[in-house]
Amino acid sequence: MIKQFFSIMRRYIKPYRKYLAWSVILNFLSQWLNVFSFTALVPILNILFQTKGKVYEFQEIHGFDKDAIINNAYYYVQMLIEQYGQLWVLVLMGLVLIVMTALKTAAYFASSAIIVPFRTGVVRDIRMQVYDKVLRLPIGFFSEERKGDIVARMSSDAQVVETALTSSVDMLIKSPIAIVIYFFVLFFMSWKLTLVVLITIPVFGWLMGSVTRKLKKKSKFVQEQWGDLMTELDETLGGLRVIKAFLAENKMIRRFGKTNDTYRDSMSSVAIRQASAHPTSEFMGTTVIVFVLWIGGYFILEDNVMDAAMFILYLVMLYSVINPLKEFSKAFYNVPQGLASMDRIDKILKAENNITDPAEPKTLDNLEEGIEFKDVTFHYANSEVDVLKHVNLKVPKGKTIALVGQSGSGKSTLVDLVPRYHDVSGGKILIDGKDIRDVKICDLRALIGNVNQEAILFNDTFYNNITFGVENATMDEVIAAAKIANAHNFIMESEHGYDTMIGDRGGRLSGGQRQRISIARAILKNPPILILDEATSALDTESERLVQEALERLMKSRTTIAIAHRLSTIRNADEICVLYEGEIVERGTHDELIAKNGYYKRLNDMQSM
Predict the structure, then answer these.
(1) Alpha helix (H) ranges present in 40-115?
(2) What single DSSP character describes residue 301?
(3) Quick one: pLDDT at residue 128?
(4) N or C terminus of the chain: which is more exposed, having fewer CB within 10 Å?
């Protein structure tokens, strides 16, 4: 556990080393000021209770002579009392105590404040790393992961890391420094008493360890349950229309309640274990104090080794060292929780990305000849079943190729291979004779425009959605693209024109309007290759007509691969390929395929009924 903790810290500590260095310095200063403020208590106690009747003489100090140092301290206080009186010295020592405490607390505050950029910065860095990795991972990764669980890892898990790991760093700096300094002083005051304390500490540590055992496993399970909750919430928000249409509110409430109860039970188990940490440490701390009180009492009453004022100071110092020990144990209670959450975050950060740029990429600036699928076979990583089987297809420049077939025949998978959302399992895809795996991903995708069945829009303005991915577009260019897409009129009828917010996922727009904004975005990008994935299948007749007009304008002079649900939209395609169970079983123009009286004609007849 300790090794994993420091391994994680090393990953994120570099930009914040100066904050940690200053925290160490200020903590060191704070603890020594704390020790010096405690020493002011001894003469105050002696003055108040007049425990010293002895007359002290100044002694020469040779080396590190503890008795001589203490003797001379008493000597100087005695001289002050003789010269100014006990009351004045009491006031003076009280002022010294106030000043030392003020300096100590100022240093303590500064040491905590200076580490805040580290604590908040690490969590920010983790969230940015996760977000960056999520954007760069292949789409296949998300077919095996739940969206709600990914959101939970970026929110809840990252917050647990901040609370459990980075806050522990503060304790792991303060506590060891305090422990070392206090034990040094305790040894200086009485090595015999301090040995008694050290004998009891392993027992203290073992009992605290028994509280934190298996905590990482429990905490990881709790975070997984939180991910389940987020997933169900995401599904509920996305499926509200279906839930209400099927009167399934009570069913969903029961489902969510069951998951919520499981999370609550797991959280309760962790909370109970957490609650037991403080009473255990409190009990052990009191036990140590009592042992020292017994043995220290013997030293005072029987051996006269230590006077009462020094013994009280010793107890104060010992009580002060017990608190850092408790904080230290608390930090190591928190660490397993943070490690459990970091494991879940690392599942994303360390996920393998097999869609990468080649070491020596070939140039691909434009489309000159066309696209070729050469004996392409594909299966998903978690399956041995081929979704595509030995597909051979040429798409000449400027031509439109349509893909039709039943759901699950491999149409969408085939077009997803072109921008390398997945890589082929066998064969290759060529653009102008170059294998797309031999060119940079950014160069490849810069040539491709997409219009999908579901228009993916963002909670932003019309302008920003149309210019998405296009740098430095002028307003005139945006308006021209919107006009071609039959979108300009309804944009201008909105409250703020192109500056109008369109809502979450374009929720303020109709399906046809969303699709036309998506087409305007593709027009503005002006790509030589266009992929249309059932772009009109979910629209009403009027919206389909407007969108189809926009698509026809967009397709002019472009190389297009179109997936068609409605065969009427691809009658004019240069070639239609019919896919069945991952294979091209028919190809030709609309009229040629009708004449063949095969699979395509049956599809066409079904849609004509």
Answers:
(1) 41-49, 66-84, 86-113
(2) I
(3) 84
(4) C
Dihedral angle, C-alpha 470, 471, 474, 475, nearest 10 ° = 50
- 162 close to 123: Cβ distance less than 8 angstroms: yes
C-alpha 30: how far from its chain's center? 34
Tokens of 24: 């160490």
> pLDDT-derived band of residue 391, with 50, 70 and 90 as boundaries?
very high
Provide the token pair at 77: 């206080």
Can you tell me the distance from the alpha carbon of 513 to that of 608, in angstroms, rounded to the nearest whole number?
27
Instruction: Tell me the backbone φ, ψ of residue 95, rounded to 5 degrees.
Output: -65, -40
Token pair in block for residue 602: 């049956």
Q: Is 230 helix (H, G, I), strand (E, B) or coil?
A: helix
Q: What is the strand order of the sheet 434-435 is part of?
A: 388-396, 370-378, 426-431, 434-435
**Rg of the chain (C-alpha set):** 37
pLDDT band for 428, please (50, 70, 90 cuts). very high
Which token pair is 576?
A: 């239609």
Averaged pLDDT for residues 27-35:
84
Counting beta carbons within 10 angstroms of the beta carbon of residue 41, is it exposed (0 to 12), middle (13 to 18) or buried (19 or more)? middle
Taking the mean position of all CA atoms in its chain, how far away is CA 241? 31
Contact 403, 126 (CB under 8 A): no
DSSP 8-state class, residue 299:
I
Sign of CA dihedral 341, 345, 350, 354: positive
Q: Is 349 helix (H, G, I), strand (E, B) or coil?
A: helix
Residue 335: closest CA among 116, 152, 170, 129: 170
Q: pTM of the entire structure?
A: 0.68
Biggest CA pair distance of the chain: 124
Q: Are 394 and 371 in contact (CB under 8 A)?
A: yes
Secondary structure, 3-state, 115-175: CHHHHHHHHHHHHHHHHHHHHHCCHHHHCCCCHHHHHHHHHHHHHHHHHHHHHHHHHHHHH
- Do the bridges between strand 434-435 and strand 400-405 make them parallel or antiparallel, or are there none, so unpaired? unpaired
- Taking Cα atoms as reference points, which of 49, 190, 131, 488 lies closest to residue 345? 131
The three-class DSSP label of residue 439 is strand
Instruction: State pLDDT tens for residues 187-210.
Output: 877 777 777 777 776 666 665 555
147 contacts: CB under 8 Å, gap ≥ 6: 231, 234
